[in-house]
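Hi, can you check this record?
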Amino acid sequence: MPQPPQPEIFRQLEQRARICAAKRNQVLHAEWHINPDFKGAKTYFVTRKGQRLKGDYRDVEEADLINIANEIERCREEFTDFLKSTFPEYERFRKP
């Protein structure tokens, strides 16, 4: 039996999805450089707040990328579970 809508759970999932999207974008849209002093890479990511541009350098290891990918996957799974529990016809309208 479907559960009634749960706006607070949805808001929490939406916030997590936004954070995951921001982390994903930082990985995909960064400039990547080899970092000889570090076992990994250095990224440079530029963001804009109003009229200002902000640059951010970060050291990135393989484990960092795996953690981001796992976080995105968990968020997707939880969101899918939420949709299934809220909308009984969810499976019927899924794309194959």
In short: Residues 2 and 68 are 31 Å apart (CA to CA). The chain has a mean pLDDT of 84. Strands lie at 31-34, 41-49, 52-60. Helices lie at 7-28, 62-86, 90-93.
